[in-house]
Amino acid sequence: MVTYLDAATAPLRNTGQIRLHGPENFAAMRKACALTARCLDELVAIVKPGVPTDTIDRFIFEYGMDHGAIPATLNYRGYTKSCCTSINHVVCHGIPDSKPLREGDIVNIDVTFILDGWHGDSSRMYPVGQIKRASERLLEVTHECLMRGIAAVKPGLRTGAIGAAIQTYAEAERCSVVRDFCGHGVGQLFHDAPNILHYGSPSEGIEMREGMIFTIEPMINLGRPHVKVLSDGWTAVTRDRSLSAQYEHTIGVTATGCEIFTLSPAGLDRPGLPS
Ligand code: MF3
Ligand code: CO
Ligand code: CO
């Protein structure tokens, strides 16, 4: 049986129970998530052909330091970078390195800042120079999947409504949904209950309630859904080497739907695509 508890008094570890956050926690999440969104905005001017992902990683580290925040990925389960940079057929958890980005690449940059103890988790796709029409279509489909998932958030419905909305749209567009990674509760913990699946049916999952805070972060492939993790222990790639894309928002469930905490203040939620 799933249980819900007041986030203000619950122990700070993932017990599988669902935290319900009050207005103070929502206010704290708004701040952490706004910082992450502003940093993702800054990256639009930085991502270019020839730039190594290490340079992006260093920018994000310094941006955090300059604003009193720590990148949550730093030393997280042995991960040593300030972000994930997932290029082309990399599904997620790509590790920044010295290799330069190339014209036509699509790269996901995933940033989580901890500000005053609260985690703001968001990622966007960045086109590198001019990209192919097929790549652009994948980005459009994937962003639409995220927004349709968000539109399905409503107290009283189950989390399966989110996955169903995403899977229905992705598959109608002849794309596939990655099953091996999911969205997650987030707050003072980076990865908390519940898991948010990006596929499934409205009758599955747990009931959404006002005060829940979680991410939605669909990974969508042009080819088959299957992934494998490389020998570095992190980098997840499509088995068929088809292109993969991901966008991520952190949201809070309200009385009528949800509030997106990580929206771009500059309207740059889908860099390089027509807004
Ligand atoms: N930010 C990722 C997420 O959306 C998690 C990255 S964990 C890392 O949940 F260790 F790979 F960085
Ligand atoms: Co996340
Ligand atoms: Co993330």
What are the defining features of this structure?
binds 2-amino-4-trifluoromethylsulfanyl-butyric acid; 25% strand; Creatine Amidinohydrolase; 275 residues; 4-stranded antiparallel sheet; alpha+beta; 3-stranded antiparallel sheet
Please tell me about this protein's structure:
This protein is α+β, with helices and mostly antiparallel strands and 275 residues long. It has one domain: Creatine Amidinohydrolase (Alpha-Beta Complex). Helices cover 24% and strands 25% of the residues. The protein has helices spanning 23-43, 53-66, 133-151, 160-172, and strands at residues 4-6, 18-20, 69-71, 84-87, 90-92, 106-115, 118-127, 176-177, 183-185, 192-196, 213-216, 219-221, 227-229, 236-238, 244-246, 249-253, 258-260. The strands form 6 sheets. Strands 3, 4, 6 and 7 form a 4-stranded antiparallel sheet that branches. The chain has a 3-stranded antiparallel sheet with strand order 5-14-13, with no helix packed on it. Strand 6 and strand 7 (118-127) form a beta hairpin. Helix 3 packs antiparallel against helix 4 (160-172). One cobalt (II) ion binds next to strand 6 and strand 7.
The CATH superfamily is identified as Creatinase/methionine aminopeptidase superfamily
pLDDT < 50 runs, ≥5 residues: none
Small molecules (ligands, ions, cofactors) in the structure? 2-amino-4-trifluoromethylsulfanyl-butyric acid, cobalt (II) ion
CATH architecture: Alpha-Beta Complex
**Average pLDDT score:** 98
Percent strand: 25-35%
